[in-house]
# Entry
Amino acid sequence: MAAFNPLEFRQHFPFFQSQPDWIYLDNAATTHKPQQVIAAELAFYQQANSNVHRGAHQLSQQATALYEDARETVKSFLNARYREEIIFTSGTTAAFNQLAFGLMHSLLKPGDRILISTLEHHANIVPWQLHCLTQGVILDVVPLDSQLMPDLEAYQALLALKPKVVSLTQVSNALGHILPLQQMLSAAKAAGAITIVDGAQGIAWQVPDLQQYPADFYCFSGHKLYGPTGIGVLYGKTALLEQLKPLLGGGEMISEVSFQQSSFAALPARLEAGTPNIAGAIGLATAIRFLRQFDAKLINQYKGKLLQQFADGLAAIPGLRSLTQVTQSAGILSLQLLNEHPNDLAVLLNEQKIAVRAGSHCAMPLFASLQLPGAVRFAFAPYNLPTEVEKTLEALQAATDILR
Ligand code: PMP
# Structure
């Protein structure tokens, strides 16, 4: 593979041709889509639109083949063992809601414990809470150490309480920190827990090899990986997926239905009730094929260089404090302007057409534990350029001059 060329990568994204004035650093919220992905969705609707798994006609068979091919693409991308282990959802949030509902109504019993970390997104907190009280299940939280990483000693102590489920994010969306999951999940498995990984941010950093990875479940959203919104994946080991009570009932997911009772279809249909996001699945598979043309290691090195350039420049601007340890980060840096609300900074950057996110980043308990109102997040993608970093630093300098 050739050396990574950010300008060539960027050319695949029509957004930057239509909006050349914008510097887009909100990639942790969602990424832009390459032309191939947009074209694949369009082509489906223009040429093959039909529902899946139900029509006798050729168009439906073609749509079904495209949809099931997309599943195969995801399976090989993650190196899952079986295609049935790939469940299409509308995103990470939907995957977690299925997991929480499914586990709470099957394997978990009153008095059982679930262990998460302080760095979790609301998607890995609220779905558990929706059931904890009624099911009598206890949610434990690993505190942070001084580097704003999970405190591993405290983690070991909480594992000694024998949680039934350990559910951790691969990468913190709020700070960018990469969790030491190989170590943490292996310890969780040794303690007998079911392990879940929130890969919403991590998938664009390091794609797991699921046959080597100590995770029983892995979830991600297509739109953070240059794919469409409204499509995501819940991966699970077959034996566990089979035990999950379906959150959604309806068409497609059944075997037999009477007015007295229903029996369910085999995986993956069992957990995919209703008409799926067919075009979205095709778009996601196209995004995966697009990404596979590039060397992930080189992409990460490049993102690391942008981040370092940004961090070096920040050091020269008084009043700014980075919450992120750059060497631990997957291309994200969150910062604060002392004594100012993060929104003020983001508003001034928006006036310079620099897109960032400010606030608590769907991680309110994290910011509560830090006693901070939130942060301004800069999330880099491989289509960002060193010149954009320079301009952002200049805009930050100007903004801090106004605010201080
Ligand atoms: N977990 C993490 C770490 C995230 O960053 C996000 C998206 N911000 C989610 C879960 C939820 O993803 P989605 O909104 O695509 O369902």
The two ends are 47 Å apart (CA to CA). The chain has two domains: 6-30+295-403, 38-291. The chain has 14 helices and 15 strands.
